[in-house]
Design a protein that fits this description.
It is elongated, with a radius of gyration of 15 Å. It has one domain (18-67). The two termini are 25 Å apart. The protein has two helices and no strands. It has helices at residues 18-26, 42-54. With 69 residues, the protein is an all-alpha fold.
Length: 69
């Protein structure tokens, strides 16, 4: 989730800096629609950023029992 692709930036874990996150939401670089403060307030955007920042990295494939031989 949120690992980034050619069409969008990496969001989680370890999201981009706040200024870059805000710029991406307000002025996206790809096909994502822009979200002005009319639709996503600065407070809501800060809450979203805090949530994205709280997402921990998942386990490595080598640590997942079902993926071991």
């Amino acid at each position: 989730m949120g690992h980034g692709e050619p069409y969008g930036p990496r969001l989680a874990p370890q999201p981009m800096p706040w200024d870059a996150f805000t710029h991406q939401v307000r002025h996206p670089r790809s096909s994502m629609p822009p979200y002005s403060p009319k639709y996503v307030s600065d407070k809501d955007l800060a809450d979203i950023y805090a949530y994205v920042g709280s997402i921990a990295a998942g386990p490595k494939a080598s640590q997942i029992p079902l993926l071991k031989d």
